Amino acid sequence: MRIRLIRHATLIVEYGSQTLLVDPMLDDAGARPAINNSPNPRKNPLVPLPVLPQELTTGLDAVLVTHTHSDHWDTSAARLLPKHLPLFGQPEDEAKFREAGFTRVRPIMGKESCNDVEISRIGGQHGTGDIAKMMAPVSGFVLRGGNEPTLYIAGDTVWCAELEAALKKFQPDVIVLNAGGARFLQGGPITMTADDVITVCRNATDAQVVAVHMEAINHCLVNRADLAFQLEAARVRKQVCIPQDGEWVDLRAQAHHQVNG
Hints:
By secondary structure, the protein is an alpha/beta fold. It is built from seven helices and 14 strands. It has one domain: Metallo-beta-lactamase, Chain A (4-Layer Sandwich), CATH 3.60.15.10.
């Protein structure tokens, strides 16, 4: 298994025989206004893609979308991605994908299969209280099969009961967390803070954590250096990979251990 962070939550995941594009945000830097009612009012995305968007729309077996907020599914993705690609997401977003012209939409109620990969949908909490209700629905996904380690892409969530239950049920070997501590001017964080990442590490001590979703959208206030500092202080830094945009995280060694160990 290999994971490439493209930017923010956009990933290329090579899993078993499948190459998946996750949460495609393909707009140019500065193409959209700042998030309403949020700190640091700069146009989004804050940084350009590390590759041409056309490079991300070829060689794919499927697309996986956790939810359709514009930093996870934007107009460029809807325009540029081939309409025949299988597109997996939460049932609430099915109509939006079909209206955009996609012909092989696969809403995941509980679980679906992408050839040799089983994809299970997990709930989440995109914040707390009234903000979480306003931001819902969101999903995470657990991937299993293809002689690979179990991969949990948690999506836009804070530490919550759904996430804790998923860790206990699936015991993932690799966990991708959307960090950044995104927030509005009022209320608490709506994505993982450093404390949330630390909590995940302490509840899944054998898992490799990959922290993404930083330094690309104006209301994400925790940057990579902040996160690394706090993880070091909590003595979990070695458990967490914090890739740069465009960087591959090669997990084949862990896959070999899972298959043979």
